[in-house]
Write a structure and sequence with these properties.
CATH class: Alpha Beta
Bound molecules: adenosine-5'-triphosphate
Number of helices: 12
Radius of gyration: 17 Å
Distance between the termini: 38 Å
Order of helices and strands: HHHEHHEHEEHEEHEHEHHH
CATH superfamily: Phosphopantoate/pantothenate synthetase
Structural class: alpha/beta
CATH architecture: 3-Layer(aba) Sandwich
Strand order of the largest sheet: 3-2-1-6-7-8
Number of domains: 1
Oligomer: single chain
Low-confidence stretches: none
Number of strands: 8
Shape: globular
Length: 248
């Protein structure tokens, strides 16, 4: 990916680089214009969180890794912002955990589906699901409900970064273990998650991969213990506390 002319010493380097990637995503036909708005919302929360992975998010990222390793059929959901921000990182996470990759768009067009699938392949993905669209999420209107029957449709564990609240709730109602990456601890997506990860996607995904590699030799019992120990309400509360106490 080409970088913008931003010196690494710039105090807002990471934030500017992120913005640049989203802009580029729009230019490449990967990210929707609504994705720019989602990015702005995310940036505001990231600023309030101190633009770092807080300890409770790191813990949630370890739990997410344990779920992905323990799953029978895990799927990583990719939308236009995720593809623009972390394409290679999502492919690496899929490789480290054995999860499948599925393109899953809120504003679905065949062209954007194809563009994203191709972009992921350019970043090393071997198989990209989402184009068959022969499954449905119950309770959503036709276009929003489309998934692959052998992908998200039959997955037991789904990682949904930056998901829209309606779909996050509908997936949770299907009984799936939902791992949500969202910078807003008050969003419906974060609240409906089995594991809410309140962190920036660009920090969260490589850290989940690092935890998955670290846990690759862990027994099923050890993974289950990590999963059992997690308290989603406490994770949301810790992030909210961090936001409220930034200046203290
Ligand atoms: P709700 O879940 O409350 O219904 P929504 O579906 O309307 O919210 P959107 O604006 O569609 O929310 O989604 C954007 C969400 O993604 C916001 O909560 C924002 O904080 C989050 N977000 C944006 N960029 C990132 C990022 N880089 N990393 C993590 N989260 C992000």
């Amino acid at each position: 990916m080409t970088g913008p002319e931003i010196p690494e010493s710039h105090p807002r380097y990471e934030s500017l680089l992120t913005r640049h990637r989203i802009e580029e995503g729009v230019d490449l036909g990967i990210t929707s214009r609504q994705g720019l708005i989602a990015q702005g919302r995310g940036e505001a929360f990231d600023y309030l969180l101190g633009e770092e992975t807080i300890p409770s998010a790191d813990a949630a990222e370890r739990v997410a890794a344990a779920h992905l390793l323990r799953a029978d059929h895990a799927v990583l959901s990719i939308n236009g912002n995720v593809a623009a921000l972390a394409p290679g990182e999502m492919v690496e996470l899929a490789e480290a955990t054995g999860a499948a990759l599925e393109v899953n768009l809120f504003n679905r067009t065949e062209e954007r589906m194809e563009n994203i699938a191709e972009y992921l392949r350019e970043h090393g993905a071997e198989e990209v699901l989402g184009l068959t669209a022969d499954g449905r999420i119950p309770g959503l209107d036709h276009e929003r409900a489309k998934v692959d029957a052998d992908g998200i449709g039959s997955a037991d564990v789904v990682l949904v970064p930056l998901e829209d609240g309606d779909r996050a709730e509908a997936l949770a109602e299907m009984g799936k273990t939902e791992l949500v990456v969202d910078l807003n601890p008050m969003s419906r997506s974060a609240k409906s998650a089995t594991v809410p990860i309140i962190d920036n996607l660009i920090r969260a995904v490589p850290n989940i991969t690092a935890h998955a590699r670290d846990l690759s030799d862990a027994s099923e019992g050890e993974l289950d213990a990590i999963i059992e120990d997690f308290d989603s309400g406490a994770a949301l509360e810790a992030a909210e506390q961090r936001i409220r106490s930034l200046d203290e």
